[in-house]
Design goal:
Elements (H helix, E strand, L loop, with lengths): L2 H27 L7 E6 L7 H11 L14 E5 L3 E6 L2 E8 L7 H5 L5 H9 L2 E7 L8 H18 L4 E6 L4 E4 L4 H5 L4 H7 L13 H12 L1 H9 L4 E11 L2 E13 L2 E6 L14 E5 L5 E5 L5 E3 L1 H15 L1
Antiparallel strand pairs: 1-5, 1-6, 2-3, 3-4, 4-5, 6-7, 8-9, 8-12, 9-10, 10-11, 12-13
Length: about 325
């Protein structure tokens, strides 16, 4: 058989094999109860050369997965424009690269995201990639599932760049903004937990006239002397208040790490990066009047959080939305 014909036949074989794998994956997906997958939401579509993927996966997994055109001792990589099948030993993975948003109606879906920072990044995304472990069912142990997350987390860390906006974990439904800790979290022994540890203080949107929120603010102001006493005695740690901070025409309610209380003024530094407050970033020094106090909290000497009245309202709102 001529060399060109052999190349064409090999390409056809790869496409057929990938299609068969996808069909098998979809059939299995209807039968399984667990999803082992990590998704990166992107500003622009990405594609990957199979030779590059084979090299990266081989490095991360300390294996020989070939060069994208041939099998290695430990597996192989086969690609089309959208889907790549990676075999490592007896385990199959799918790397998906889709040049479209993760959902059909991004604006509508974004309304279910309470965190304003996550919502803003979600609306911005135009494409996505994911790495999925295939063949997950109830018979798989948590140790096995954790191993797969380490595998796909390490590989996804190699693919991260400035084009990535969010990491989404389908199993939990949680999304995480990309920051300086994301890559380290993905490479960790427990990517799911490590990603949670990268979360910045959430920025929520609940109507100002919500009765539960109004009552939470009243409670915070009525119990303010408790916070002042703890702060002045340096009892506990992480003494913080939440208050509105403005820049130009934008106002955001942000947690401040308190550095001083002088009369009716509270001084502190921003505890997280705002969504849209110009040059104000985490650590920026600000002051707010006591009259604008929205909430307070600190960790007492027993390790318990005191205060956080609006936080409790946010948690209840999230619980109700998840149930609905």
């Amino acid at each position: 058989m001529p060399f060109a014909a052999r190349i064409i036949l090999a390409c056809v074989f790869v496409v057929v094999l990938i299609a068969a794998t996808i069909r098998l994956y979809r059939r299995r997906k209807k039968q399984v109860s667990k999803i082992v997958s990590l998704v990166a939401l992107l500003r622009e579509p990405m594609t990957f050369d199979p030779a590059v993927l084979a090299h990266l996966a081989s490095k991360v997994w300390n294996a020989d997965l070939g060069d994208g055109t041939r099998e290695g001792e430990d597996g192989h990589v086969m690609s089309t424009d959208i889907v790549t099948v990676i075999r490592h030993g007896n385990q199959m993975y799918l790397l998906n690269c889709f040049p479209r948003p993760y959902v059909d109606d991004v604006e509508a879906a974004s309304q279910d995201l309470l965190d304003l920072r996550i919502r803003e990044l979600f609306v911005e995304h135009q494409a996505w990639i994911s790495i999925d472990a295939l063949g997950v069912d109830d018979k798989k142990s948590e140790n096995q599932i954790s191993y797969w997350y380490r595998q796909i987390g390490g590989l996804l860390a190699e693919l991260l760049d400035d084009n990535c906006l969010l990491i989404f974990v389908p199993e939990s439904g949680l999304a995480y903004a990309i920051n300086d800790e994301t890559e380290k979290a993905l490479r960790s022994d427990n990517p799911r937990q490590a990603l949670r540890d990268t979360m910045l203080a959430p920025m929520f949107s609940i109507p100002a006239d919500d009765p539960e929120m109004q009552q939470a603010v009243v409670t915070a102001r009525e119990t303010w002397p408790q916070f002042v006493a703890a702060f002045e005695a340096r009892s506990g740690e992480n003494h913080s208040v939440k208050a509105p901070i403005s820049y130009a025409d934008n106002t955001e309610f942000i947690w401040l790490e308190v550095t001083a209380i002088e009369g009716d003024l509270i001084f502190g530094t921003l505890g997280n990066d705002p969504a849209n407050l110009g040059p104000l970033k985490v650590g920026a020094k600000v002051s707010v009047p006591l009259s604008e106090l929205n909430d307070w909290c600190y960790i007492d000497t027993q390790g318990e959080m005191q205060g956080g009245f609006t936080v409790a309202v946010f948690r209840e709102v999230m619980r109700r939305r998840q149930k609905s």
